[in-house]
Structures are given as structure tokens and as C-alpha cells.
Amino acid sequence: xxxVACVFIITLMSQYILSPLVSSQYYNPTKKTAGQKYFxxxxxxxxxxxxxxxxxxxxxxxxxxxxxGFGKYNIAYDRKNLFTKETEKISGQLNKNRIVGSxxxxxxxxxxxxxxxxxxxxxxxxxxxxxxxSFSKNNTNVQIAHIKELPDTSYISAxxxxxxxxxxxxxxxxxxxxxxxxxxxxxxRTAEKQGQQLMGFSTDPNGSFVTNDKxxxxxxxxxxxxxxxxxxxxxxxxxxxxxxxxxxxxxxxSLKYLVDHxxxxxxxxxxxxxxxxxxxLSYAMENGVSTYxxxxxxEADELLDFYDSGIIMTLxxxxxxxSKYIK
Length: 327
Known about the structure:
With 327 residues, the protein is of the alpha+beta class.
């Protein structure tokens, strides 16, 4: 009886004292620290990281973490390609702030190496940057020639670099003047000499799952873009669109959230200059929110017309499907 009692006590101590004590030293994705009632921190963490730093993707169907004790967690979520609508199920395990399994190999490896490549080996204005920019400009001619050979109804996703940086008001004016083009993700300037920090926001209010389970709206107003839009958007009779302000609020709130959840960022994406959300937030607060490029979707003839407007400096095709009506 004494032996059984000892085992029972040890088990209880391990489960209710030692395990929580060990777990408290590491990122706990099952917590709810931002005022939400239902969704775990992990659901918001992975959704916001994906939107800000993984353009062209969203989190669908939510995300879930299971506490295994002693700093271990099973994690799972569905990631959707916003262009093809294809969804991949990603699951793995966190073990004391280390990712084990598929998230460690599929989260961010494939995208950043091919987006605005002129920034990836040096800051804007450097010798290597200028060489790569020259290559991108020459390659744009090849890309445009290829688009001209496609049927007009071909649906294309493409990375475009603007001739000049645009404010959110200027961007919105261009969007409204080219309403056949979808500006799916906006790359935001994060430094005077832009480098490897590929950050931005999705203009699609439903790009990821939307929830009424609100986080701290005072600290993070507009963390979901759809919350600012009120679901129904804004009246076309207004003299000035509120969207530029919505975009700025949404982007800054997203960065604030990621800065406040530093442990989640360090665990899920590691320590890297590419994910220095704190410096990006400081730059946006001091200089405003401006964009140098975007991921856009459009039919071939629409993209060609947009390119002819002179707004685009470089263009790189990301993907092509036969028609935008293909699901």
C-alpha cells in the first residue's frame, strides 16, 4: 500500500507540478494570452506569421496544439495556396521550442528564395543588388513575351516590383483603377535600404480563417482586416476610401502582435534577420506604411494592360492556370 501510494504521489507530482514547471520555461501554444476565449495562441500565431511573412498562403480551418507535457506539443494546421486553392495538411511536434516533423521543413523554405531576389544577397543600392535588379529587369521582358503567347483568359499570379514606392492611398487608387487585377499580398518597406525582410499583408479579408473570438482590440485593432471593414466594406458614395487606413492599421497591429509574441516567433521560424518584426514595426511607426511590390493575380490580357501603364518596374511569373474559373 505504501509503494502504491508513493507511485501515486510521484505520478501526481510529475503531472501537476513538474510538467507545468518544465513547460513554463518554453513556448506554450495552448495558452490564450491575448484575451481570446476559444482559439489557442498557436492558431493566431501561425495565422499572423503566415500572412506577414509567407505571401500567397493562408491558414484554413484553424490550427490546433495538443499539450503532451514537459514542453512537448503536437501541432496541426491546414495551409491554403490562395492562387490554386490547394490545401496541405501540416503536422508535427514542438519539443522544448524545437520543431520536429513537417513544419520544420515546409514552413518558409520554399517561398523566400524566389521572391524579389535582388534583395536576398545585399541591401538596396549595393553592387550585388544592382546586378540582380538589372537581371530582373531583363528577365521581365522575357516574362512579358511569355504572357503575350498565352491565351488571353490564362490566369496568372505574378510578383511585381513598382517603379516607385507607393503609399497606401496611392496603392488603393491604383487598385481601384485596375479592378480586374487582384492585389493579393502587399510587400511593405521595412528599411531605407530594403534587404531580406520580406514582410507585408494580405488584402483578402478571408485569406485565412476568420473568427469572432477577438484578441485584445485595444492593443491590436484590425488584427483581422475584415473586422475593420465591418463585413460589408465601405460605401462607394463616400468621397474618400477608408481602405488605406485599414491597411495601415492591420499591418501595424500584426507586427505588434508578433513583437509581443516573440517566443512564438522564435520557436516557429527561428532567429533570423528575415523575421525581425521589431525593427520593421519601428520603421513603419516612424516612416509610415509604404509598398515597393506586390503579389497580383489576373488574366493575361489584364496583366499586359497593367504592365503597359508604367507602374511596374519588374515582373516575375509565379504560377499560371488555364482560367480563373478553374477551382
